[in-house]
């Protein structure tokens, strides 16, 4: 343990200075797989900020240099990352790069608060919650934050329970009346998120302002669910019974895989992003099969394939984060609006092509998110109740 801590400190320093060899980069990122080193890596990043940014004077050139060095290291290691399919690495690599620069800006703004930052804190909005509403086939509605742990319902020979870690789990408990096709719906409002284990073992994470409709028990040739909004799926493998996700404009068919679907009505396209396995996306007469690391974008004009989606910015919500680097600013603000249940109002000076940036936990109040974005110098925010005014 002590040896690993010493090695990670040595390698992080070389990484930040831009002097690490390719072999040293590989060794550093291999060590990030060790969960016990999380606190050590965080401490190294914080030390880097304290050594190179002060409330009075920010060494912006040094911070920029560190940021560029780490981003370059990530690019060098990217092929190995994709082959290993190790999501923990992706998160820490992004955090290491972004916290060095964005964290320095936070340190400065928190120690020298502007009048506008004071206003943001005074009119703060708390983050969303881990809750949802479960609607059973008979119309009964269960607000899951109010439900006790343990069995909450039973239908079609299936036990429905709420676990201690806050998810709904369906367990086949007997033969039941399997032909009834009883449908359940798990729905979240703005500012809510939840997880469900479906009766076939498939795990689904449901984002804010979304709903998933599914049978209490899968019967027949396929396993079909309907999605409104956004969800991340880890589908249980069953070659004999394809898993199908339908939205208003497309149908996704898989056998067993990990993927994310963003089907919000206020987005320009339905985005299906594949992390593992293979999926077939069909819309009208168009059909595309994609590989891990690809994304389909479905519109009224058909389906197009994006070969280079930024995965961290797509699945960040599932991990409890906002990863906004290289995202369209207004797209990022829609994500924020759904989680904090706020309305975004733009001044005419805000262009549609502006980019966002930064990484921060979704567990923060909205003031922390807005201060991070403001630190870029591109925009300023004013909070009025649950309305966020954006101006240059």
From TrEMBL:
GO terms for molecular function: sigma factor antagonist activity. Residues 322-390 form the Protein FecR C-terminal domain. Residues 185-280 form the FecR protein domain. Signal peptide: none annotated. Pfam families: FecR, FecR_C. This is FecR family protein.
